[in-house]
Amino acid sequence: MQNIKVTVDGTTYQKEVEPRTLLVHFLRDDLGRVGTVIGCDTSNCGACTVLVDGVSMKSCSMLAVQADGSEITTIQGVSDGNEWHPVQSAFKECHGLQCGYCTPGMVISAIDLLNENPHPTEAEIREGLEGNLCRCTGYHNIVKSVQLAAELMEGATR
Amino acid sequence: MTDVVDTGTALGRPIKRKEDARLLHGQTNWTDNIRLPGTLHMAILRSPLAHAKITNLDVSGALAMPNVVAAFGAAELGELNSSVPCVWPVTDDMVAPDFPALVKDTVHHVGDCVAVVLATDAVSAADALEGISVDYEPLQAVVNMESAIRAGSTLVHEDKGTNTCYVYHLGGGYDEKVKEADVVVKRRFINQRLIPAFMEPRSVIAAPMGMSNEITMWSATQIPHILRLLIALVTGIPENNLRVIAPDVGGGFGGKLQLYREEILVAQLARKLGRPVKWTETRSENMVATHHGRDHIQDIEIAAKSDGTLVGLKVDLKANMGAYLQIITPGIPLLGMFMYPGIYKMEAYDFTCTGVFTNTTPTDAYRGAGRPEATYAIERIIDELAAELGMEPMELRRKNWIKHEEFPYTTIAGLTYDSGNYEAATARALELFDYDGLRAEQKRRRDSGNRVQLGIGISTFTEMCGLAPSRTLGALKYVAGGWEHCTVRVLPTGKVEVITGTSPHGQGHETAWSQIASSILGVPVEDIEVVHSDTGRAPYGMDTYGSRSLAVGGQAIKAASDRVVEKAKIIAAHQLECSPADLEYINGVFHVKGDPEKAQPLGAVAFEAFTAHNLPDGVEPTLSAEATIDPQDFSYPHGTHLAAMEVDTETGKVKLRKYVCVDDVGVQVNPMIVEGQVHGGVAQGIAQALYEGANYDEDGQPQNANLSTYLLPSAADLPSFITDTTCTPSTTNPLGTKGVGEAGAIASTPAIVNGIVDAIRHLGVNDVLMPATPMTVWKAIQAAQGGK
């Protein structure tokens, strides 16, 4: 067992973990942060994507011990529930989700994408979200959501 | 009276979804999120071989591993090892092998359940599988359907003496009628095996709840009501002690329309061990243990006059059942059986389907369930016939489709299509697509010998939705009905509960059902709560599949809401001291005609009904009503889908350049949700055409059973779509709705493949296999050009 200290959605946790524990299992099973979900076991689906020190990361492709000292933002910490993040608002506005299972990862990846490229083209959005699979929407409205989010975020910073 | 919104305006508006707030904030209740004290986690030892005898199974080693509480093989499980039943015995002599939760002595496919371990945490349970000792004596695997039904084949189930599950016939007279034809075209199409691959893996937890004798089961299922009944029947848990809840469910596409053996195991072991038992599948388990879809070999023959008039259609189908029959495995091809004639008039139709067992994962419903296969075959062969006749493919369709003035129309397959307007949907699609412009470009590219050729793919489809009239299901030997239930309760505070028997997993029922009730009750959408997917709170229902929820369940909401208003009117009339006939109901308020001062809102009526201090004689307290609706017939959405496909003739690389679809789903409750359903369906159909296909080698080993190798398309693999709708209301239900869940997936696959073939037909190609990867397309071109 190894002792790690991780800040998740604003709360700092100090925990003993097995060295083999994946970050996503640590979040879900040790911390009860079950908003982040698991969709595969090959790091393909991206449902478990979180921000680690501000950068998107599939939390199944990282060990909890590697997150020692990091600040992690999950879908549960993107906004406080009253204030919506523009990406969350845009996904609702554009019907960018159906069953919602890929949504935590999709929203986090979209936030990271827009942080890096505030004015992406449709092609850049599609390439940028390539690591997040959705089975419901056909991506059409996800692309529209990200486009709207870009506009909302520009409006907010103007 | 000021500022009132007209009653009825909630219907047909693209209202943003109620579901989204919790889904977008991670405040979700997926089954795997449920954590109960004392839970035992189950892990399953699955067969690594497709076909083998188990010569030794010893689970005792697992018991010595840390945190392990119990381990079971079939012997240890004994009487609790219930079997999965098939509830659709399609013929009297159908062969149904035993399908126990844990195999007894032979494994029949990779992923078959051999033994289970229960430990206090999931990781320990998975680790402890290493402690189970098992010896296999490999047997020859049966993988290919055609060899499976040849005499002398190895048998998947030796005790059954055959690999043929059933042979089903419909129709007749084709062989006589074909003599009148000038042209006959035959093709063999392969509708490859697909994996539903919903994003939320299956998960189930069952717990004795300590209240009375109740066992509560949460499952990531589409069918909590049917599941409750089936679990009760197979495990002996009294139905009235069993509560099944489908909490937030992350997609299904038919893959969660099932009673899975893992659900049986969890229920039985929770009862036996007296504590919660939980199991969540890994994705790699999902790909071999969750039922698959499609996998049909389709030998199709179409006959026509030289002017293009269709004479008849003959379909000879081989349908892969897999190793066992899941609940409706054998019925899936029969849902397609009715749809092979598509939207066309013809004089003869012969259908034969042979269900075949192989050592592969069982098949069952996957988005469209039989109808995509049928639509693929008819829309592909119509294009082939057009090429043979030298006719424009849309012209051939126009010549033969049912004209809008001919509805209702009874097809050669025996269904009566209630309504439709193929002309209108097609005209709009051609316009949006710039059909003539693209045909001109196609000709230019062809004339100039451009390396990249352009093809136009057409799919003018219809489907049957709204499963279903119970009598029809009975006639097809399905053991249940197809009704749907709703209870509408107006609470003393004026808030409304719409208690539905449908069970959404992404379709937005909470929003759409609120809209239906709001339009009748005049209560704001925000004040309506849709209660669903819990047999404790919504006791009656037939759940969600087959594009039935609105077409059937929506009618129950309408009927129950109407009845609530009827009862409320009687109470309001009593309160306002007038006759019910003197009242009009506008925007949630009863008004006395001609006396606008005298009025009573629905909430006040509900409070009166609650106190019951002053009700008219003979009127029972509380304001609620229920309705159970059994539709008189199916509904038939249709549409015209067009795809512009670019094919690089040197590499075989295919590009979907433009996709236009115009769907007629009848009256729409929420157009935003309708459009989303079309997008998702179209994407899944395109995925069948271009990307997906579950493959086995000759030993029955899956070749791509994980998300690294089974290609679910990403955003980068698909374009945006151009969608529109026309509206021909259904006449089989009072809302005029049809159903949209499966439309896109049914329509798009043939549009894509027709487009590819159209692009390279001049090179001698008249079919490409799915998925149409660059290699497959390149090979088709090479073969047609005489190379190999």
Keywords:
heterodimer, A: 158 residues, alpha+beta, 35% helix, B: 788 residues, seven-stranded mixed beta sheet, five-stranded mixed beta sheet, disordered N terminus
Q: Any overview of this molecule?
A:
The complex is a heterodimer of chains A (158) and B (788). With 158 residues, chain A is an alpha+beta fold. Chain A has 5 helices and 5 strands; from the N terminus they run E-E-H-E-E-E-H-H-H-H. Chain A has helices at residues 23-30, 86-93, 103-116, 122-128, 140-157, and strands spanning 2-8, 11-17, 49-52, 55-58, 71-73. In chain A, a hairpin with a 2-residue loop joins strand 3 (49-52) and strand 4 (55-58). In chain A, helix 2 packs across helix 5. The longest helix of chain A is centred in the C-terminal third of the chain and has 18 residues, at 140-157. The model of chain A has no long low-confidence stretch (mean pLDDT 96). In chain B, 28% of the residues lie in helices and 24% in strands. In chain B, the strands form 7 sheets. A 7-stranded mixed β-sheet of chain B has the order 3-5-1-12-9-10-11. In chain B, strand 14 (310-322), helix 10 and strand 15 (348-357) form a beta-alpha-beta unit. Mean pLDDT of chain B is 96; it is low at 1-7. Chains A and B meet through helix 1, helix 2, helix 3, helix 4 and helix 5 of A and helix 1 and helix 19 of B.
Itemize the secondary structure elements and their pairings:
The complex is a heterodimer of chains A (158) and B (788).
Chain A: E1 2-8, E2 11-17, H1 23-30, E3 49-52, E4 55-58, E5 71-73, H2 86-93, H3 103-116, H4 122-128, H5 140-157
Parallel strand pairs in A: 1-5
Antiparallel strand pairs in A: 1-2, 3-4, 3-5
Chain B: H1 20-24, E1 40-46, E2 52-58, H2 60-63, E3 68-72, H3 74-77, E4 106-107, E5 113-119, H4 122-128, E6 133-138, H5 145-148, E7 164-172, H6 174-177, E8 183-194, E9 203-208, E10 215-219, H7 224-235, E11 242-245, H8 261-273, E12 277-280, H9 283-289, E13 293-304, E14 310-322, H10 332-337, E15 348-357, H11 371-389, H12 393-400, E16 409-410, E17 416-417, H13 422-433, H14 435-448, E18 452-462, H15 470-475, E19 484-490, E20 496-500, H16 509-521, E21 528-531, H17 549-575, E22 583-586, E23 589-592, E24 595-601, H18 602-611, E25 623-629, E26 638-648, E27 654-664, H19 671-690, E28 722-726, H20 743-760, H21 774-784
Parallel strand pairs in B: 1-12, 10-11, 14-15, 20-21, 27-28
Antiparallel strand pairs in B: 1-5, 2-4, 2-6, 3-5, 7-15, 8-13, 9-10, 9-12, 13-14, 16-17, 18-26, 19-20, 19-25, 22-23, 23-24, 26-27
